[in-house]
Amino acid sequence: MPSGMTISRFSPSISLMPFIREYMVIEAEQELINSLVPDTFMAMAIRIKGTTGVLSGNDLTQIPSGIISGLSDTTRTVSYAANSANLIIAFKDGGMAAFSPVPAHELFAKSISAGNIFPPAELQILSEKIQDAITHEARIQLLDQFLLNKLKATPSDPMINRAVELIRKHKGIIRVKDLATALHISQDPFEKKFRARIGSSPKKFASITRIRNLINNYASYTSLTDASYDAGFYDQSHFIKEFRQFTGKSPSAFFSAPPAW
């Protein structure tokens, strides 16, 4: 992670573990810019202090006090003011469905105010309490209780869960047609259900999983060529092009830079 940034991680309560991967508190001691590499989870952020914005070219858009971001297949560039802090909820695959009736794919490559999902007045009260709390542990307890109160009786979808499991098992190197066959469902209804629950098409989710797996396990490879072959890229020019689209950098430039979180 960039110098001057601290990330503290916390587990959700047992009742929320099926839906939430983890909570994170991200603190920036100094003004810095960080690239958020795409991942397979949706996230919600609540400001604790300071300001944070998203950079697009030379334009900086300030992030509101509460924001929800869908899956994306391109890097987001975030600017953190000095002495800023944000609390992040990283949802599990399909976990957002336990709190929101909005089909997850409608948020793909988008960020919206959390007030579009949760009552704005209640979010404002939560935000003020989180800002006033003395410790991160106290902030986590406040957030955890808020989410427990918003938990909906949304049944799990075993078929979609199994699809995600297969994609991860194959490191993202699997065709949608083969997934649908393994799950005994025709491809069109499978893709529709997957998008609504997970937040992207199964093909896009597999692509994100493929690159993330390479990034997360890069240290175990003897060379970049070996890493690309293991990820199923046998054409180096195609690999470099797809990696650059995903991270905004060539593979050599990405792995020689300080790791993004």
Automatic annotation (TrEMBL):
Supply the InterPro entries for this chain.
AraC_XylS_family_regulators, DUF6597, Homeodomain-like_sf, HTH_AraC
Ranges of residues in domain HTH araC/xylS-type: 161-257
* Keyword Transcription regulation tagged: yes
Record keywords, A-Z: DNA-binding, Transcription, Transcription regulation
Pfam families from the entry? DUF6597, HTH_18
* Top-level taxon in the UniProt lineage: Bacteria
Gene3D superfamilies in the record: Homeodomain-like
Any one GO MF term held by the record is: DNA-binding transcription factor activity
Protein name per UniProt: AraC family transcriptional regulator
Q: Which PROSITE patterns match?
A: HTH_ARAC_FAMILY_2
